[in-house]
Amino acid sequence: MRAGFILSEVWSGLRKNVSMVLSVVLVTFVSLLFVGAAILLQMQVGQMKDYWYDRVQVSIFLCPPDSEATTCVEGEATDTQKKNIEDQLNSSELAPYVDEVYFEDKAEAFDHFQDQFKGTSLEGTVPEDEMNESFRVKLKDAEKYEIIKESFSSTQGVEEVVDQNQLLDRLFGVLNIATVIAVAIAGIMLLCAMLLIATTIRLSAFSRRRETGIMRLVGASNTFIQLPFLLEGVIASAIGATLSAGTLGLLVHFGVSGWLQGQATGFSLISGVNVLIVTPILIAIGVIMAGASSLITLNKYTKV
């Protein structure tokens, strides 16, 4: 009997305040859409780091004949200098960091250059004898690339140490900034949602003050009086959270897993599985937000 009465009160409240309920649903939907996007973006950053950091290399470019670098005063890198660099890479000091070392001669460098710029204006612009020989170093921990750079940047016979991680750090930095912006927008929208939920509950409680007064007279507890109002906010917020999760699922399915994955075939992107992981988080945030906002309001306006 009590459960039936509470459910009838909840339905009555939702029906009488349709416009306000829709407002709560929409603002919750938008705010949690940003929250979900921020979480998914960080998941994508994590996947990209795992993929790229496992494949990037540090390139130690040796001196060509006409280099003006201070470490190339003797001209092109000599066999002795190459041997010293190789021995240092294989030394016990760098063993904890270096996973694999590969030497690329001029012929291989020229072939890679031609393949990379095939069909462009740069193809064939650099002759083979002007290509840099290099040591390509794969690290055990790609984020420790600074150790290699510091070890060889002033070594005789080395013109330049280039680490691909610097480019990746810039990319991930931009993605992290985008995440912060999404979180900031989500925070503002969540605050708006909480204020709107509080207003909705207050108006609902005011419109039913006569029923509430009768319930007080017959000895109803605070919990019994407040529960229908609390459920109204929670239900509206849960609907908004579910809609945001569904929208994210469609965007990921058609936009990321569908179109974008076809363009970026080299590595995996987030998928519907990631959205399934995020969905309960969004619903939990929506329910907790609505519950907290409703309780604060109800304690003020419906307390016996």
From TrEMBL:
Compartments, as annotated in UniProt: Cell membrane
Residue ranges of the TM segments: 20-41, 174-201, 238-260, 272-298
Pfam families hit by this protein: FtsX (PF02687), FtsX_ECD (PF18075)
ABC3 transporter permease C-terminal domain sequence ranges: 184-300
Domain (FtsX extracellular) ranges: 56-161
Membrane topology note: Multi-pass membrane protein
InterPro entries: ABC3_permease_C (IPR003838), FtsX (IPR004513), FtsX_actino (IPR047929), FtsX_ECD (IPR040690)
Stated role: Part of the ABC transporter FtsEX involved in cellular division.
Family: Belongs to the ABC-4 integral membrane protein family. FtsX subfamily.
Assembly and interaction partners: Forms a membrane-associated complex with FtsE.
Protein name: Cell division protein FtsX
Organism expressing this protein natively: Brevibacterium picturae
Gene: ftsX
